[in-house]
Amino acid sequence: MHVVLSGGVGAARFLKGLVRVVPPEEIIAVVNVADDLWLHGLRICPDLDSITYHLAGVVDPQRQWGRGGESDVVASELERFGAPRWFTLGDRDLATHLHRTERLGAGLPLSSVTEEVTAAFGVDVRLLPATDDEVTTRVHTADGRDLHFQEYWVRERGEPTVSRVELDGGAAAAPAPGVVEALLDADSVLLAPSNPVVSIDTIRAIPGIDAALRQTPAPIVGVSPIVGGAVVRGMADRLLPSVGAEVSALGVARHYGDLLDGWVVDRRDAQASAAVRDELGIECRVTDTMMDDPEVAGALAGTVLELADGLRR
Ligand code: GDP
Ligand code: CA
């Protein structure tokens, strides 16, 4: 079993590659839920949904999130009542949130509801929310505000200077059923090229998960989300400095530190590989990591698994 710590879009693109080289039944994605929010009484889980829509082949190909062929009738009607429009809620997407919220209300844990949602979309990769408990990334800004991650990221386009990021509810949360077991039994643990601060660290911060990562006999191999010294998409470059990390393939490897056994960087960052090996003692591979082309994503997944394989022996 290959277990992939996953954020949203970066992880979804990587998982699309991984299913080209291993059967989906042999993949478990442990997914960040700290971006989740309540809106109009609905529970919205952006990272779980991004992955589901990508793997189901129904994602919007331009935006790389949300549903393709989307409309926004409900959102425009909600404006009538003064509802803010900064968070996009498409009509098709709303059906997912409606179903999820109804099932959560009936008492099902998020992990069970996620199983229902992925089954409905014909997704065979198992998606496990990092936790069934409600946890939220709060972004403290230099101008003294305490924002929900989505207010910072979507409403304010990641513009405020960040002083600190905090996982609200983190200390009291528990890993969702199956998460720790999956990590301990894994053949390999992979860190998707996701936002290190608000996707991967927020999974690791759930009590018990980091310990399982330290304890697992499986090799841990990550893919750099930083390509050519910049983010591919998103605004991770604005968050890495808030945890004292440099915005580079080497900087992210340093940030993960001795958690990693292997690190895969883009050709544009080939110069980082010597320092990853010599300074950090982490095996490093250089390859194409821009996953716009699914074939490249598949080849990248192959390289990652091969590196993990070599490290297992
Ligand atoms: P989000 O939750 O939707 O923001 O997605 P993630 O946390 O999974 O991923 C965001 C990160 O993925 C950003 O830092 C991007 O640089 C990175 N990313 C997205 N697409 C690619 C890609 O094709 N290759 C690589 N190497 N990184 C990518
Ligand atoms: Ca996310």
What would your notes on this structure say?
With 313 residues, this protein is of the alpha/beta class. The chain has two domains: 274 residues, 3-Layer(aba) Sandwich (Rossmann fold); 32 residues. The protein is built from 13 helices and 14 strands. Helix 1 links the parallel strand 1 and strand 2. The mean pLDDT is 96. Bound molecules: guanosine-5'-diphosphate and calcium ion. Guanosine-5'-diphosphate binds next to helix 1 and helix 2.
Report low-confidence residues grouped into runs of 5 or more.
none
Q: Strand order across the biggest sheet?
A: 5-2-1-9-10-13-14
User: What is the radius of gyration computed over CA atoms, rounded to a whole number of angstroms?
Assistant: 19 Å
**CATH level-two architecture of the largest domain:** 3-Layer(aba) Sandwich
Q: Which CATH class of the largest domain is shown?
A: Alpha Beta
String of helices and strands: EHEEEHHHHEEEHEHEHHEEEHHEHEH
Small molecules bound in the structure, each named once: guanosine-5'-diphosphate, calcium ion
Number of strands: 14
